[in-house]
Amino acid sequence: MAKFDVYSQDAKVVSSVELSDSVFGIEPNQQAMYDAALCYLAGLRQGTHSTKTRHFVSGTGKKPFKQKGTGRARQGSTRATQWRHGAIAFGPHPRDYGFKMNRKVRRLALRSALSEKAQNNSLTVVENLSFDEAKTKKAVAMLKAFNFDRKTLLVADASEDYDNAFTAFRNIPNALVIDVNGLNTYDVMNADRLIFTQKAAETAGEVLA
To answer: Which of 36, 91, 96, 126 lies in disulfide reach of 109, CB 3.0 to 4.6 Å?
Structure first.
């Protein structure tokens, strides 16, 4: 079991917690992490790009000039791709870019990302994210206490009261609060700092182990 210090919201050590080595202490699998991030980004693509084929380009179907005797290359339609205002050859059409990853590989990728953050000392465990009021200045004060000024991902458990914290951090461009059940490899990799509540860290250790 890996041992982590547990901090208060003002960055003071108040206790410690032991978390699963199989989640926060494995050798990161770079290929699995890359594939998971690629899968996540592919799923975000709208795929609404489209171009017109000869069937959809406006224009007549009449042969522009006779087949022989003009000295020009034979042409059958002004809607062909080589004509101005003609169709597009092999252009993009609406499609779904998403692809599926095996469940075991997805879990391995997430465990690898969490372990890499832990090994790089970029993972912090706090008591909770319970704010008495939804004030952005409270969120800013917390980040300043930990000296976090880059992209920060905060993870809480659904059983905790973090509604005020969610609202408070919402106005900070480089901070994001999510539920541990919505944790994904890309968000972990994209963040410079990772903050878990103690409850969320324990839940992740149990679910992903």
So the answer is: 36
CA distance 70 to 97: 47
End-to-end Cα distance, the chain? 11
> 76: number of CA atoms within 13 Å, CB side?
3
Q: How far apart are CA 132 and CA 90, in angstroms?
A: 58
User: Rounded distance, CA 99 to CA 110, Å?
Assistant: 17
pTM: 0.85
Tens-place pLDDT, residues 157-194: 999 999 999 999 999 999 999 999 999 999 999 999 99
Per-residue pLDDT at 209: 80
Dist. CA 181–CA 178, nearest whole Å: 8
**HEC profile of the chain:** CEEEEEECCCCCEEEEEEECHHHHCCCCCHHHHHHHHHHHHHHHCCCCCCCCCCCCCCCCCCCCCCCCCCCCCCCCCCCCCCCCCCCCCCCCCCCCCCCCCCHHHHHHHHHHHHHHHHHCCCEEEECCCCCCCCCHHHHHHHHHHHCCCCCEEEEECCCCCCHHHHHHHCCCCCEEEEEHHHCCHHHHHHCCEEEEEHHHHHHHHHHHC
Q: What is the mean pLDDT of residues 109-136?
A: 94
